[in-house]
Amino acid sequence: MSEPVIDLAARAAESALFIKRSVPAVPPLALVLGSGLNELAEGVQDATVIPYRDIPHFPVPTVAGHAGNLLVGRIDSAGLIVLQGRFHYYEGHPLEVVTFPMRVLQFLGVRTVILTAATGGIRADLRPGNLVCLSDHLNLIGDNPLRGSNDTRLGTRFPDMTEVYSKKLRAVAREEGKRLGINVIPGVYACLPGPSYETPAEIRMLQALGADVVGMSTVPEAIVARHGGMDVLAFALVTNSAAGVLGTPISHKEVLDAGKKATPLLGKVLRRVALRLSDPGGTGLTAEMQTFGGDV
Ligand SMILES: O=P(O)(O)O[C@@H]1C[C@H](O)[C@@H](CO)O1
Ligand code: HPA
Description:
It contains eight helices and nine strands. It is of the alpha/beta class. The radius of gyration is 18 Å and the shape is globular.
């Protein structure tokens, strides 16, 4: 079999080494911030801030609402890496570039990745400000980040995708949401390439396919994170009703404003989840959650 054209593993290893040398210690938990959610990074204590442009091989975001910094710090006792900004297929990057940060996290020894994204709410009961925890996804980008020759140093050729979003972590998120009085709603994310928002007919199609929310990211990252052996938890903030649901136009400004408005709510859930994950044995579920049915 031919060698990969670009040695992704070598590049990711170099990026990871640069980060390791810039911080006192590397935590095993990482958080990726979606559109409008930059301010969540302000809650990170003792943060070392590394601009993406300083990290070898790292791309630089081109979209408003994605700051382009990697932070290493803590939320109370929970150490974490925060990626303040992500890359999208519609920016013109191949998916291997879009998902490069996941490879760097893999080389940093990260065990769990929490992805966040702004989304349009398809399901009739979803409203802007609702917090959805992904139970599954539909990859409708028309491409896959693992396309091409497989580098076995990075993962297996045919990774299983039965449980992309860890059932155990989803239950933790639901449980911590419940403790805070926040409804963390299970849902399926449909990923389209963008950058145009969907038409009402496309939204009806996505609804028929079983999607609850729609966005333009997250799925390639989740696929690569699983390929790299990391556990994934993903939150979709509903920033707007999907096209045609209310009949009102959608704008990126509306998405960013809704993200900003929901930052305190998401911050509370993320803090509790991070503390649970940093506590050895902390993902243990209460009896109530253990009996939770298949809808998490
Ligand atoms: O990075 P995310 O998925 O949060 O950003 C969404 C999708 C587009 O980049 C943008 C559309 O407003 O928000
Ligand atoms: O309605 C949407 N569609 C696709 N991506 C999005 N990101 C935020 N809102 C949306």
